[in-house]
């Protein structure tokens, strides 16, 4: 079977236990079931490397939807819904970015580029796999919105 689904990655300071707890609440609102798995994607040589251990919640409406997913992959059914998955792992984030500040004055617009290094030792990476692109599916848009609302919640107690 070919790879299916549309993948979206998110980095955040929100721990997996918190996000998955809130995610389960969202799933109960839309009457979805979920299976939890802890998966290690390391080869045998690096099996104990904790950076490749993923927490996975695979979400589906009913047994028929789940079985159809196993045969066809991620897809939208006749009701406009489908299976989706969220995976999470603790991650380090190391990167370099170029920022451009736009400075306006009376004569013209100038851009002043700045390089910044991003160094985070304690972040969490979430990968959301949707059945369709959110731009093409209101269902996928709703599911992506669920995750964004959890990650953007300013009233939680997570720092």
Brief write-up:
This protein has 159 residues and is of the alpha+beta class.
Explain this structure.
Strand 4 (84-104) and strand 5 form a beta hairpin. Helix content is 25%, strand content 42%. 16% of the residues are buried. By secondary structure, it is an alpha+beta fold. It contains 3 helices and 5 strands. It has one domain (6-43, 51-152). The mean pLDDT is 84. The longest helix has 15 residues, at 138-152. The protein has a 5-stranded antiparallel sheet with strand order 1-5-4-3-2.
Give the topology string: H per helix, E per strand.
Answer: EHEEHEEH
- Total domain units: 1
Tally of helical segments? 3
Shape: globular
What is Rg? 19 Å
Percent in strands: 35-45%
Uncertain regions spanning at least 5 consecutive residues: none
Biggest sheet statistics: 5 strands, antiparallel
Global mean pLDDT: 84
The CA-CA distance between the termini, in Å, is: 41 Å
Q: What share of the residues lie within helices? A: 10-25%
Structural class: alpha+beta
Task: Give the strand order of the largest sheet, numbering strands 1, 2, ... along the chain.
Answer: 1-5-4-3-2
E-strand count? 5
């Amino acid at each position: 079977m070919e790879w299916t689904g549309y993948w979206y990655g998110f980095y955040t300071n929100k721990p997996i236990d918190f996000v998955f707890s809130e995610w389960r609440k969202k799933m109960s609102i839309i009457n979805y079931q979920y299976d939890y798995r802890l998966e290690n994607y390391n080869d045998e040589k690096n099996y104990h490397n904790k950076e490749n251990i993923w927490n996975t919640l695979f979400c589906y409406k009913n047994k028929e939807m789940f079985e159809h997913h196993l045969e066809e992959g991620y897809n939208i059914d006749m009701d406009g819904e489908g299976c989706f998955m969220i995976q999470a792992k603790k991650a380090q984030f190391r990167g370099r970015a170029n920022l451009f500040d736009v400075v306006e004055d009376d004569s013209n617009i100038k851009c002043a580029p700045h390089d910044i290094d991003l160094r985070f030792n304690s972040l969490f990476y979430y990968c959301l796999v949707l059945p369709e692109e959110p731009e093409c599916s209101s269902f996928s848009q709703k599911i992506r919105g669920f995750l964004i609302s959890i990650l953007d919640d300013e009233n939680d107690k997570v720092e």
